[in-house]
Design a protein that fits this description.
Chains A, B: Residues 1-18 form the signal peptide. Two copies of one chain form a homodimer. The first copy, chain A, is of the alpha+beta class. In chain A, α6 (138-156) crosses α13 (396-405) and α9 packs across α10 (296-313).
Chain lengths: 1014, 1014
């Protein structure tokens, strides 16, 4: 459309829009050099699911639960902005914006693009959702942000400048530096920090800081970060939603109740109050809140008037603004700001209201998200290797489902149950589609077919998403119906992997062979009744059918898989007297006879005490006392002085109660060539398996917890404690979104003198990857399989909260008790969770290697696919082993491929990450090279353009635009030189990665053949 | 604006509007000949004041009381209609529309005019407000409707076709025939009729009828009238206000919760349900309710979808419609409809919920409106006679204030107190302006100055709006500070008038003279303490100042005033021994001695019983026993079975308690040459004066009631009963809006078999002019000074409810108890009311004359203005007597000038009304002539164009367009020939008026001199 026509159209828009007050307000104010500038930032905060599902929020259904319709917001925003070119609006949640965009006509799109280009409409933050910062994994945060940023780039050609995490419940270091500075944001604003911290910062005018979230990157990844004085709503009385109760500006002298002077006075008073706690002559007013601007006109009509009359008054300067304009104004002040390091966890909004319960809330959903996250990473790799099809199944819906699952009311567990169900449904749908893609990609790769030939491969692969409850139809049936079973194991990591595989089988009359036909040692472990029950109940629950006869054994065997590739194994009906799996030796130890029971035949041995508690850990000469136990906190129902209850958000215990293992229950000890296990029924609703793999030097603890009983009317939050004799001096370390470890000190905050009100809840931190502690000699690390809350509440001890079942709502809006159940028809029982954690001792300075490398293996487990084979005509053709990279090459141990994804036009997105922080490991915390050519042996890389983290702009462009900020005092002095990998030589194509560095490339290939012969 | 540009603009509007869903819905359905047609009528019902003031509703302030902003409705309606030319909307309340219109730019006005002309926006009903039908006076109804209709005509060139009284609490005959048929409406729709009536009509499919509201006019003023099946909201579940909870139509197959078929089924089911109680294949859905369409887009988005999918489904035909389209469809059915006569009073929505309390609620406000109404009529006449000034004070703001005071939550008393205060304030402001106009007009006329010369007349007139509490500064001070007093008395009636005047004076040392200097007989009546208290307290309350020394006497004298003119009287300081007023003979009758006390020295005498009750009425040979007493109903606080309370709307007594006059209080008897009075203190809060004027043959009863005590925790509704010995056979007659009398039969309804639940409340009717009953020999009539509720609860008895003070809300939304107080600063006491009623016996067939003629005098009292004069230089020049009409002419006794108002361009609006119904009076219920030439002796009438009642179209045009309707059965047979005045000969200019006829003319004058020498 020609500019002239567009201009005319915009002019007409002003006439035609609902804003037709004949009076013309002067809304043109820009920044005033000396007056107090009040930046009015019209905004809406649209939760990507919370009390309603995302779709319900979008279309405005289910309004009896919450009056919210995002379609209204965006529909009404357009004419409101057209009505006055000075008006501005920001929009944040791309999941909604994209739904809306899809519905718009080309004419509307043209107008909206013009609004974006003129700066009237600014798309900020720009991920699909406003992700939480405590419980998402950083890979998921990157992916969901990238999805949104790409859309914005593609449709509007712009890159968001501002981090706008106004609602999440505390703020992470990873958000500040990685999803902030590293995506090119100039600033980062948020609403929720600890009430004590906030009070001090208001007093010291230090709500606005320069935040260096990364020890490794220091000032090179710092960001201007502003916490709001209260929340993200307007000052009291300036709330102009349709039907809102704030006094409107009545400026029609011919009507009664004219109140212009009164409203101007209110405005000035609120501005001055905020100026008193803010540096510089700029304050920002967040003019909006959750799902507001349903009828944008109502806000702008009043804001127009306020700007007009306040500026006529002249005491302060009011202007339409955006966080970008505000940030530039702060930057232009050219002053030094307080320095902030670490993070803003945990978050308490009142003395007994620590929002540390949500670190664990909905543990099954948190695990599901983690599993899907790893699967999505692997699926994209396989999609890339096979060559992305233009139609048919892809990873798109899994990507979308995972993206919105990162929302701060999704993975947090703070949504209503029906909304949690919606997220789960979306993940399941996304998974189903990705599963088809993965199966067919594996089939294509196995069949060595080219991209084009591989429309419908012959080999049919099946996968087993319910393997965790010992349900795997192909492995159960194949061998029992006269077929053999081919097993493909895909390794998404860049290094060769030795691992063990564990699948349920109906019979031990089988043998396991590698791709060369060699017999592979294997072990049969009887599946216990606890698993049979899990299996039969949950197959009914989730698939709505009977699980059928239960498999008898876990078949366990060791496997070896190449980098970014697969191996195949065959499981055959045993013939003759050939090698069969070793049946485990199972012994039952009666109560009172426990003493000295031990498992572990390799470098690691675990002994148990007479009470059946794990007690001694022996590994490579280290001999440590360790004691593991369960207890629960009873959730507070509120006290006389404070009605705060423990709930989905808030952890407020009113007592801690040890769970003593039942005295009459025997221990079961399972021993075999690969794995030893010790099974314990702790009580009627806790079952635990302690497992030692001969080839590994950590302990794996598998737990089944639930249904948590509440028939005593008491909500319970179930924790496990692992106690050692270490002198840890109140200090422990937890990860930030699965990435950087941050030092935590019990009952202490770096930024203020902590008043301790909640000795447990106030010391809880989110754990995504792991938690560790150390003394002068050693480290003790625990890795987790999902996000959980945890702490070290006494020296030498670590506590993880595994499950929560509560009976009351904690008054933060969700208005439901966190009381998860699963139902077969109408018969519901409390949710049972099953999961694992892993622990290990290391000599001091040596723990990172396990935490980082094994941690990454936990995130990216081997992807298993099964194919039945006719035993009589075993497939001899086809590839039995595959590596996506040069077989002579492997990625360094400290490097991982975060993303390998085919883009349009045969390009690829590649994200490489250094897994180690600076100083974390002597050998591995070093700058390391990756040879791109070796990564893509069958392709020729034409160009490797380094991008910002969200890949929406070239890294160089981003760096050139980055605002430079000064910090107060001598903060600079403490900083050591920051290491960053250098530029990539376009010929050599070697990428250097410094510790913690993540580098993002868009690769352009000049050869497109995607069939690789490994 | 050229048509092409406009079309382009409209097309763009569609693009730019918020409605930009890419999906295109087919909304083009029109009427289907055979299917069930569901007429979707988007509407909003915007109360012109209720819980908030009109201004607060308009701008959307005070939203904590009610979430409502009319500006939003109208702002958002425009783009919503532009977005799809099939969409339609009706707007009703012109008071709001005019506020909005004033704010619009020319561009918007052009668009809105186009929307009106295309029929997308239809302005219906069209008065300033949706007036009530029980308590307003028909003259006020005409005036407020005219104001709105003129505006619509002037701005849009259209005339509303539809009566839309959807919310008023029962429906009047006058509304149906006079404000319906006579303003040219083709139909009339409403929501509230008695629940028993409704049930029967649904069953019989007779909600839609042909209503003949006038006995005099019969079928010539009939109208198609439709009562809604429920209320005026959409069917349950089809309520699409922003944030409403009804399920939206989710038709996006790519989102969850797709529900198109479900919603279509709901729609069809609701349509069929309504069809089952409705004649023809047309049903109307009122898609909206109070203050809805705040964001019109939310409704139209869903309605578009419903029309699209319902018609795709095909079982029924859904269309955007208006009441006009619906009416035409009903008419096109060419069938006979049930006949309805009488009215729809009283209204009960449940068994114990008779909305008959509001007939009396806020009696002081009701009186204030009535006084202002009469004043407005007179002021316009004086404005006409003087010649309307182009600037300076006029009657506009009084017109506006009176117009909105007719709203069904204004004069009804069913608004919140602060809103009642707002109406009162507006009336006071309007009065103040009109008062200046009246004073200066009178001065001009007195000074005989021409229009142009009369910018600032010398004579300063003062008026006494607080005369009712004996406060009249000019009459009080003039004579005491050495000045004489000139009194001008203006008579707005078209016939010469003999009356008495009563003004407070400080001294009896005065004399009264007519304009020829003749001494006029006068009487002094001591002002009693009861009035001194009223005066001093209320002057403080209303004027915020001390009233000063109280006047000692009422000075009473007889006056004679010409038609539409004035007389002047002088009150001089008495000189020498000349004639002074006669001091009344005042005697006190001690308790026990009452027997035989009587007043009245003319044709009428009233005797009192030993108990102090009026007991015998003697007039011209008639001798009737009559007993008058007070009692109160205790307002119900709800019962176990029904929580309904007595409140502003609902009269629900839980008992009736006689008020026995206090035994120790003496009677005071006042006698004089002009007036006799009997003063009684009934109890500490009721004071009564029974008054007989020697020249009149009715009894005037003046009451002071209040503060009604509630310290016993009981709300009270105070009534007076007047009992006679008449055998009235359950039958009595009450007026409809002050115009037609309707027969009422106790415990009986014409239209259905009444189940009697509330023997008092269910027999109450609104009384504006009066109530009467008759037996075979005589009639007993009572006239009132304002709207009150009344009944005849036993034969021969009449009851009027005078005051109500209640302590609980009656749950109809106002959410306040009707507990009126007046305050001096923070010291508040219950509202005291003061007022009068009048009664009289007449021989059978003779009562109408008094009711009609004296009733009109009560509506249009003499307008008094005072001017101080220097006694030493009495003004000798100037006009002392004036008549606006030819001095040789007087209007016939059965004719009144309802409106005489100067219009732009020297035109005038003239409304002449015949005061008598057909058959009401032998001599006066006849077609009567008015000679227009004699009415305007100094002007030449160029044209006299007969108009519709609201003067927005020529009567002939209106008649030519009128839809002809058929009624069922042989209803036609009973009809007698209808009399109507014939056409007006343009030369003779004689207007014939048949009984009850009101004829409206716009007169064009060819001479403009407005100075008349009488």
């Amino acid at each position: 459309m020609a500019i002239a026509v567009l201009a005319f159209l915009l002019a007409l828009g002003r006439i035609l829009s609902a804003e037709s007050k004949f009076m013309v307000y002067n809304t043109s104010a820009s920044i005033h050099p000396t007056k107090l500038n009040v930046h009015l930032v019209p905004h809406t905060h649209d939760d990507v699911g919370w009390l309603k599902t995302i779709d319900q929020y979008y279309v405005g259904s289910n309004n009896s639960i919450q009056r919210a319709c995002v379609q209204n917001v965006l529909d009404s925003m357009v004419p409101a902005l057209l009505a006055d070119k000075n008006r501005k609006f920001i929009y944040v949640e791309q999941a909604f914006f994209q739904l809306w965009w899809r519905d718009q006509s080309e004419a509307t799109k043209t107008i909206v693009k013009q609004l974006v280009h003129s700066g009237q409409l600014e798309l900020i933050n720009g991920g699909m959702c406003m992700h939480d910062e405590a419980v998402p994994h950083y890979i998921d945060m990157i992916d969901q942000t990238t999805l949104g940023h790409w859309f914005i780039k593609e449709e509007f050609g712009v890159t968001p400048r501002i981090g706008w995490q106004i609602d999440p419940f505390g703020h992470s270091a990873v958000q500040a530096y990685l999803l902030g500075a590293e995506v090119g944001f100039d600033s980062f604003f948020f609403g929720r920090i600890d009430y004590q911290d906030r009070a001090k910062r208001k007093n010291e005018k230090s709500l606005e800081v320069i935040w260096r979230g990364s020890k490794s990157f220091g000032s090179s990844a710092q960001i201007f970060a502003g916490a709001f004085p209260e929340n993200y709503e307007p000052p009291s009385g300036f709330y102009f939603e349709v039907n809102a109760a704030s006094p409107i500006v009545q400026d029609d002298i011919s009507l009664f109740d004219y109140n212009v002077q009164e409203r101007v006075n209110d405005f000035v008073a609120a501005a001055v109050a905020q100026a008193n706690i803010t540096q510089t002559n700029h304050v920002m007013w967040t003019m909006g809140t959750d799902f507001k601007y349903q009828y944008a006109h109502t806000w702008f009509r009043q804001l127009d008037k306020l700007i007009h009359y306040v500026n006529q008054d002249g005491r302060v300067n009011a202007l339409y603004s955006t966080p970008s304009i505000y940030t530039d104004a702060k930057h232009a002040a050219n002053r030094a700001w307080p320095l902030k390091t670490g993070d803003y966890f945990p978050y308490a909004d009142r003395a007994n209201s620590y929002w540390t319960g949500f670190f664990t809330s909905r543990p099954a959903f948190k695990r599901y998200v983690r599993v899907m996250s790893g699967y999505y990473l692997a699926a994209r790799q396989l999609e890339f290797f096979r060559g992305r099809a233009t139609s048919g199944p892809n990873t798109g819906s899994l990507a979308d489902a995972l993206a919105i699952a990162q929302h701060h009311d999704a993975i947090t567990g703070t949504e209503k149950q029906h909304v949690a169900n919606d997220y789960t449904k979306r993940l399941a749908i996304g998974y189903s589609e990705a599963e088809v893609l993965v199966s067919s990609s594996l089939a294509c790769l196995v069949e060595s077919a080219s991209n084009k030939e591989c429309g419908s491969p012959i080999t049919k692969f099946q996968q087993c998403p319910l393997m965790n409850i010992s349900y795997c139809p192909p492995s159960e049936t194949a061998l029992s119906n006269g077929k053999d079973l081919m097993l493909v194991l895909y390794n998404p990591l860049g290094w060769k992997r030795e691992d063990i595989v564990q699948i349920p089988v109906m019979t031990g009359d089988i043998s396991v062979h590698d791709s060369e036909g060699n017999n592979v040692e294997s072990q049969l472990i009887p599946i216990t009744d606890a698993y049979h029950k899990l299996r039969s109940y949950h197959v009914k629950v989730y698939l709505g059918r009977n699980a059928g006869e239960a498999p008898k054994y876990w078949l366990v065997f060791s496997v070896s898989v190449p980098s970014l590739g697969f191996s195949t194994y065959s499981i055959l009906r045993a013939q003759g007297t050939g090698a069969r799996p070793t049946l485990s030796n199972v012994s039952t130890v009666q109560p009172g006879k426990y003493s000295g029971v031990n498992i572990g035949q390799g470098n690691l041995k675990v002994e148990f005490s007479a009470a059946g508690k794990m007690t001694l850990y022996v590994s490579r000469g280290m001999k440590e006392h360790v004691e593991q136990s369960f207890s629960f906190y009873s959730g507070s129902n509120g006290t006389h002085n404070d009605p705060q209850k423990s709930g989905a958000y808030v952890f407020r215990p009113n007592g801690s109660f040890p769970i003593i293992p039942e005295k009459q229950t025997p221990l079961t000890v399972v021993r075999g060539p690969i794995i030893d296990e010790l099974h314990q029924r702790i009580n009627s609703w806790i079952y635990q398996v302690t497992r030692v793999n001969k080839a590994k030097e950590h302990v794996e603890v598998e737990f089944i917890v639930g249904p948590v009983p509440t028939d005593d009317g008491i909500g319970k939050e179930v924790v496990t404690q692992i106690s050692t004799g270490m002198m840890t001096n109140k200090t422990f370390y937890t990860d930030s979104c699965g990435r950087d470890f941050i030092e935590r000190i019990r009952d202490y905050r770096t930024d203020w003198e902590l008043e301790v009100n909640q000795p447990a809840a106030g010391n809880y931190y989110p754990i995504n990857l792991g938690i560790f502690m150390k003394d002068s000699e050693k480290e003790f690390s625990v890795l987790v399989d999902r996000s959980v809350g945890g702490s070290s509440l006494s020296d030498g001890q670590i506590e993880l909260m595994l499950h929560r079942r509560l009976l009351l709502d904690d008054s933060r809006g969700v208005a439901e008790a966190l009381n998860e159940t699963v139902c077969v028809e109408d018969d519901c029982t409390g949710l049972i969770i099953q999961g694992k954690y892993y622990f290990r001792f290391d000599p001091i300075g040596k723990g990172a290697r396990w935490r980082r490398s094994y941690g990454q293996e936990l995130y990216s487990p081997l992807l298993l696919a099964f194919s039945e084979q006719d035993g009589n005509s075993r497939r001899s053709s086809g590839r039995t082993q595959f590596s996506g990279i040069d077989p002579s090459y492997t990625l360094p141990e400290n490097i991982v491929v975060l993303t390998l994804q085919e883009l349009d036009g045969g390009k690829a997105l590649l994200r490489l990450a250094h897994l180690y922080e600076i100083g974390e490991d002597k050998e591995l915390s070093v700058t390391t090279e990756v040879q791109l050519k070796k990564l893509f042996p069958s392709k020729k890389i034409g160009k490797a353009i380094e991008m910002s983290l969200s890949a929406n702009q070239e890294r160089a462009t981003m760096e050139s635009k980055r605002l430079v900020w000064q910090v107060e005092d001598s903060a600079e002095e403490g900083e050591t030189e920051v290491a960053r990998g250098g530029p990539v030589d376009p010929i050599e194509l070697i990428v250097e990665l410094a510790p913690m560095e993540i580098r993002t490339f868009i690769l352009e290939f000049t050869e497109f053949d995607t069939v690789i012969y490994g």
